[in-house]
Amino acid sequence: MKNIIIISVLLFSVSCANPAQELKQTNSPKNVIFMIGDGMGIAQIQAAMIANGNTLNLDRMISTGFSKTSSASDGITDSAAGATAFSIGKKTYNKAIGVDKDTVAQKTVLEYAEEAGLSTGLVATSSITHATPASFIAHQPYRNMAEEIAADFLKTDIDVFIGGGKNYFVDRKDGEDLTLSLKSNGYQVIFEQSGLANITSGKLAALLAPDGMPPFSKGRGDMLAPSAMKAIELLNQNEKGFFLMIEGSQIDWGGHGNDIEYVVSELLDFDNTIGQVLDFAEKDGNTLVIITADHETGGLTILGDDILGDSTATNFSTDYHTSVMVPVYAKGPGEEAFVGTYENNLIFNKIMSALRIDSDN
Ligand code: MG
Ligand code: ZN
After folding, report:
1. What is the CA(253)–ligand 1 centre distance, in A?
2. Confidence tier at 11 by pLDDT (50, 70, 90)
3. How many CB atoms lie within 10 A of CB 284?
4. Has residue 15 got a pLDDT over 60?
5. How far is the CA of 170 from the centre of ligand 1 (A)?
6. 128 alpha carbon to ligand 1 midpoint, in Å?
7. Mean per-residue pLDDT for 246-265?
8. 41 C-alpha to center of ligand 1: Å?
9. Cβ proximity of 277 and 232 under 8 Å
10. Closest ligand to the CA of 212
C-alpha cells in the first residue's frame, strides 16, 4: 500500500508539470450539452438499468454528484422552478419561468451563451413551451402561459429548437402565426420529423406535434436521439462553440401516472440519446456533457428484479414529485466541478464558469 501511494504522488507531480496548461485543457470546454431527465431519480435510473440487463449508457459517466432540489416556495419543487434554478442560478417559486422569486426576469444561461457568440439550442419530448425548455428562453410569471412563452422564442436569437407545441405558435388567441415571424427571422420551420434530414445548416424551428410529443411507446418512437444529434450537427458549425439543453421530458409523466413501463421506456429512450451524445462528445474532446434531473417523481422504490414483469418489484409512494436529492453526472473538460453535494441553482454557476462567462444575476 505504501508503494502505491508513492507512485501516485509521483504521477500527480508529473501530470501537474505545467499547471496553467493543465487547467486550461481540463476546465474549459468549447461546448456544453446539458441533459435533463425530468423526474429522473436514482430509482428510475436503476429500474431502467435492471430492465436493460443491468447496464445503461449513463454508466459511461465518471464524475457524479447530488443536487438538492427544493424551490424558493416549497420543499418539493415543480419543473418550472427546478429548470429556472438551472437557467438563472437562483431558486424561485414553483411555476416560475425564467424569473426570480419577485417575478423579475433574469438572463438565462442560454441567453448568456447566445450573447457570448455561442450557438444555442433546446430539444425536448414535451411541447417546446413546456416548463423545462421554456425556463431557458422565456420569462413569464407562470408556466401555463404557453402562448406568451412561445412569443418569447422570438425575443432571442436561439439557433435550433426541436419539440412539440406547434399549436402555441400557430393556433393562438391573438390570431398570429408565429412561424411566419420565425421564417422572416431566418428559421427553417418544419412540422414533421422526416424534414430533419433535409436541414444541414442554418437556424431551425421544428414543431413536431400540436402539444407534447406522444410517449415513446405510443407513436413517438425514435425522435429524441435523432433530434439531439441534428441539433448538435447544426450548432457545432459555430467555431466559438455551443450550449444545448436536451430534455427527456416524459420520465416525469410516467412517474405522475405511477406507470413503471412508461418510466422505463422513456428513461431508456433518454439513455439511448445519452449514448449518442457521449459518442459525439468523446470524439470531439472539447464538449462537457452534464446529465441531471429537476426532481424525482413518484417516490419510486425498487423491491425486486423483475421490473416490468412483477407488479410487486416496484412501488410508487406519490403521484407527485418528491424532495429527494437527484444525481448529477458530468463528463468532459470541467467535469470535476460537478462532484459533491450542492443546491440545484449552483449548476448554473458551474456551467457559466465552464464556459468562462461572467454572470450579473
Ligand atoms: Mg419537463
Ligand atoms: Zn412533474
Report:
1. 9
2. very low
3. 15
4. no
5. 22
6. 9
7. 98
8. 14
9. yes
10. 1
CATH number of 60-66+85-254+280-292+327-354: 3.40.720.10
Please, is 5 exposed, middle or buried when counting C-beta atoms within 10 Å of its C-beta (0-12, 13-18, 19+)?
Answer: exposed
Query: What is the distance in A from the centroid of ligand 1 to the CA of 36?
Result: 8
- Ramachandran sector of residue 313 (left: φ over 0; alpha: ψ -120 to 50; beta: rest): alpha
Residue that the C-alpha cell 407527485 belongs to: 320
The pLDDT tens digits for 97-129 are 999 999 999 999 999 999 999 999 999 999 999
| Cβ atoms < 10 Å from Cβ of 350 | 22
Tens of pLDDT along 139-160?
Answer: 999 999 999 999 999 999 999 9
Residue 235 has pLDDT above 50, yes or no: yes
Residues with CB under 5 A from ligand 2 (ion): 252
- Grid coordinates of 1: 500500500
Ligand nearest to the CA of 163: 1
Residues within 5 Å of ion ligand 1 by Cβ?
A: 38, 79, 132, 249
What does the block give as the cell for 272?
439511448
Distance of alpha carbon 130 from alpha carbon 49, whole angstroms: 27
Catalytic residue among 67, 70, 71, 79, which? 79
The average confidence (pLDDT) of the chain is 94
Q: How many helices (H) and strands (E) does the chain have?
A: 13, 14
| 79 among known catalytic residues | yes
pLDDT at 3: 52
Say how far apart CA 251 and CA 44 lie, in whole Å: 8
Angle between helix axes 346-354 and 79-88 (nearest 10 degrees) is 40
Compute the chain's Rg from CA coordinates. 20
Percent of the chain with pLDDT over 70: 93
Distance separating alpha carbons of residues 57 and 47, to the nearest angstrom: 14
Q: Measured in angstroms, how far is the CA atom of residue 79 from the centroid of ligand 2?
A: 6
Q: At what angle do helices 42-51 and 260-284 cross, to 10 degrees?
A: 90
**Contacts for 330 with CB less than 8 Å, ≥ 6 apart:** 61, 63, 64, 65, 288, 289, 290, 291, 336, 337, 338, 339
Residue 27's pLDDT band (cuts 50, 70, 90): confident
pLDDT average, residue stretch 202-220: 98
The three-class DSSP label of residue 161 is: strand
The domain locations on the chain are 60-66+85-254+280-292+327-354
